[in-house]
Design brief:
Blueprint (H helix, E strand, L loop, with lengths): L3 E4 L1 H17 L1 H17 L18 E6 L2 E8 L4 E4 L3 E2 L4
Parallel strand pairs: 1-4
Antiparallel strand pairs: 2-3, 3-4, 3-5
Helix pairs in contact: 1-2
């Protein structure tokens, strides 16, 4: 099991933009989205290889976590016992 989840600056910035957009319609929906995302992210420490190898990177340690129409590529850093969330982007099937 990995110990920590690190959120990169691009991830934080993109998530803020998504939450701001959702909040224009409903602040409650934005809060629900954020809470549900946080719960799923926290589960990554238990099974980090659960999700597919990233379609955006050629590296077995970079995975794509799909959540409600968004893709969150993340790096599994076993040496430092952490997961690094790289970004959150609109999911596109390839």
């Amino acid at each position: 099991m990995l110990k920590t989840i690190q959120r990169s600056e691009p991830f934080k910035k993109s998530l803020l933009g998504i939450l701001t957009f959702i909040a224009k319609d409903s602040k409650n929906k934005a809060n629900i989205f954020k809470k549900a995302l946080q719960e799923k992210i926290n589960q990554l420490t238990f099974m980090p290889f659960k999700y597919r190898k990233s379609i955006y990177f050629e590296d077995e340690n970079i995975r794509d976590f799909i959540f409600k129409g968004y893709c969150i590529p993340y790096v599994i850093d076993e040496e430092n016992e952490k997961i690094i969330l790289l970004d959150i982007i609109k999911y596109e099937k390839r």
